[in-house]
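hey m, so remember when u said the tokens were messed up on ur end? i reran from scratch. heres the input so u can diff it against urs
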Amino acid sequence: AARDAYASRVTDDEIRSLVAELPDAGDLLQAPRGYAVRSRPDTGTAEAAGTTVKDVDAWVVANRGQLRTARAQASGGVRPGRRVAPPPSAPQRVYVLPADVLAD
């Protein structure tokens, strides 16, 4: 019951605004034409908007989007003076969703 009351405080438009304001993550993942790639919010960002990350995930899926895991592109090889390449960055969760969903 507490979850229902919590979720009802945030409107569809408020979640859309939150997702639209998330950083563009197009450099992490190639998206089809007409789609936007946004970084997934952290718990604090979602809570500041009055929602939860799970509710934002559910909104994205309900609006023809997907939650994907992406890795930053590897750098162009070994740096001068080093014999090993830097370790790969940690995977990041991103949203891929139709760009028209983000329009008001």
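this time it looks ok to me. The chain is about 35% helix and 15% strand. if urs says something different then somethings off w ur setup not the seq
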